Amino acid sequence: MFRTLARATLRSVKPAPYIEHAIVRNVSNVAGKPLRNFKTNFLLGTALFSFAAGAGYYASQSKVKVSCEAQTEASQYMKKVEEMEKNKRYEVLLPSDAKPTSMSQRMDHYVKKLQYEIVSTLAAIDGKDFVISQYQRPGGGEGAVCVLQGGNVFEKAGVNVSVMSNKLPKAAVKQMREKPMELHGDGPYPFFVASISLVLHPHNPMVPTVHLNYRYFEIQDEDGKPQAWWFGGGSDLTPSYLFEEDAVHFHSTLKQACQNHDPEFYPEFKKWCDRYFYLPHRSEARGIGGIFFDDLDTHHPEQIFQFIQECGDAFLPSYVPIVLKRKDHSFTEQEKEWQQIRRGRYVEFNLVHDRGTKFGLRGPGPKIENILMSLPLTARWEYCHSPEVGSEEEKLLEVINQPRDWVPLN
């Protein structure tokens, strides 16, 4: 996993050689063991890589050397990860050792592994543990909800995995996707869904909120064979304050993941994201976008599954460097209030327009707390609020009122 994260990030974030060497030397000294041993330890490797990516990203933008303060920060992450390794509390999220064969089993296996990796890394950064709630679905399936509230970095962070199998009537099945599909018989139809979803709401208004969701659907025959299948998902960034270099980094990482599979994916899915995460009643975008796609069945399922895995593996490299760079940024009470107002827009979209929320609420045996996990702890609605002309707040509104191409589409 360490190598996967490194490859995904270093395509778009390339620290100067002297920075990479300094990180290796200092981290090795702190650990008291050779760097090569880190590759056998996911949590250790991920936390160290998060620091390295953040330090390299900072240096690439501001042209400064890694400071003693940054080296101390690496040491602090090391201690946090070592403590986590002792209790191994997140290993309960990992899938069984049984080798998956069908696509449904493989997606089930992958989203659980990705949840473990993301939760472990975020906990190492924040310093506070996630609360884990695992459950079995009466009609078939299972899930794991991981929530961190009132942390040091994240005000609220939720990383959920849901695996569901049940039966749905024909009308409900047709609402599951935009593109029409041919189904045999009148139903109800057995279906399968495996998905991972996360929303992270940071304390600091300079750190953007981020969303991710990747999912796989099957409509099955009575014997369990798929008669229709598709993938969906994406990841998008919702800042309260705009740092253009952060937007470029986020989009560059996603673009590279897309281009490794199809050169048309990024331009198509970036535009799709701009269209989807839009509040028509406000005439504004939710944030600065990312990628989004649904009903994806145009390639061989193995090709799409490889694409889904690369996008999922690109999440930490796309977001962690931004968190590490911005999380200790100073802010004012007024800037915190603006963050609350922008969160209000986030709530409006999720409750009024989001298809995932609607599907969850209308599906069999809805778990309301899990579905609404994406909502922030706090938000704000001010009557006719308008930012000052020329302010940083107005700068953000200009971008979300007119979506921008942060990197070349082709």
UniProtKB/TrEMBL annotation:
It holds the Pfam family Coprogen_oxidas. The keyword Oxidoreductase applies. Its EC number is 1.3.3.3. Keywords: Oxidoreductase, Porphyrin biosynthesis. GO terms for molecular function: coproporphyrinogen oxidase activity. Coiled coil: none annotated. SUPFAM superfamilies: Coproporphyrinogen III oxidase. The gene is HEM13_2. It is an enzyme of class 1 (oxidoreductase). It comes from Basidiobolus ranarum. This is coproporphyrinogen oxidase.
